[in-house]
Amino acid sequence: MRSSNGAEMAVEMKAGMVVNDPEVLVRGVLLGLGVALVAMPHALPHLERGTLIRLLPDRYSDAGPISLYFASQKLLSAKPRAFIDFVTEAFEQQKLPARFAAGGASRI
């Protein structure tokens, strides 16, 4: 895990339950089954409503960036270009990069 100033620390996590759907994991936490390490896109609506709280607000686990990969912008057909433009615009309009970032989320 990392702190907001970039300091890293190793954390050993012992799983009591394993699921392959992050929404199921969030649902389990909401039902009071325990605590979980949940990606911000899945936790954020619940954090904003106050139905979830961050137990370690100054710590986060970085799984990496959200990326769209494509071969070349010059040869990109209209459909992939429209999708890329749609996703980029949606992220900007909803301010998702700041909302999903650990530093932005810790202010919730």
Which terms would index this structure?
single chain, 108 residues, mainly alpha, two-stranded antiparallel ribbon, 5 helices, 41% helix, elongated, disordered C terminus
Protein architecture, described:
There is one protein chain. The chain is mostly helical. It is built from 5 helices and 2 strands; from the N terminus they run βααβααα. It has a two-stranded antiparallel ribbon with strand order 1-2. The longest helix is centred in the C-terminal third of the chain and has 16 residues, at 78-93. Residues 104-108 have low confidence and may be disordered.
Could you write a compact summary of the structure shown?
The chain is mainly alpha-helical. It has helices at residues 22-30, 40-49, 78-93, 96-100, 102-105, and strands spanning 2-3, 59-60.
**Can you list the strand order of the major beta sheet?**
1-2
Question: What is the CA-atom radius of gyration, in angstroms?
Answer: 17 Å
Q: Give the percentage of residues in beta strands.
A: under 5%
| Helix/strand class | mainly alpha
Percentage of residues assigned to helices: 40-55%
Blueprint of the fold:
Blueprint lengths: L1 E2 L18 H9 L9 H10 L9 E2 L17 H16 L2 H5 L1 H4 L3
